Task: inverse folding
């Protein structure tokens, strides 16, 4: 395991963690997470498992409703992009970075004041920059 991230809800009643895990093999890293009403995590799950896709550098935030928002690097498209999902029932991973941005890495997510936002690095044709995106307002 490596690259751990942690979040505590604004009211202190929910806890979340995410990390890169190689339990399926050293060359097959995936992001796992655990969300709990106590700081004693007992169960975890793959955040959005896709065979042969490498995942890394997760980040996680909890909004005021207790919904977890996780963001990570993912290579399922053949190029490293930034993906995200929430802990809302039925939600699944989807990209936030765009192919035209180039290789995307090192995301950071935050949830506050009714918003969920992410920032990440991109490198395209020798030019590096930082991209800021609003994922969406919180679901209250």
Result:
């Amino acid at each position: 395991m490596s690259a751990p991230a942690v979040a505590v809800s604004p009211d202190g009643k929910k806890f979340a963690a995410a990390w890169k895990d190689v339990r399926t093999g050293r060359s097959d890293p995936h992001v796992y997470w655990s969300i709990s009403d106590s700081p004693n995590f007992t169960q975890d799950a793959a955040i959005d498992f896709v065979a042969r896709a490498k995942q890394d550098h997760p980040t996680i935030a909890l909004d005021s409703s207790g919904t977890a928002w996780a963001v990570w690097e993912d290579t399922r498209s053949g190029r490293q992009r930034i993906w995200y999902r929430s802990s809302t029932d039925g939600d699944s991973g989807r990209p936030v970075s765009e192919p035209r941005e180039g290789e995307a890495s090192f995301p950071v997510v935050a949830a506050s004041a009714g918003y969920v936002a992410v920032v990440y690095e991109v490198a395209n044709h020798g030019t590096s920059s930082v991209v800021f995106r609003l994922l969406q307002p919180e679901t209250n």
About this structure: The radius of gyration is 15 Å.
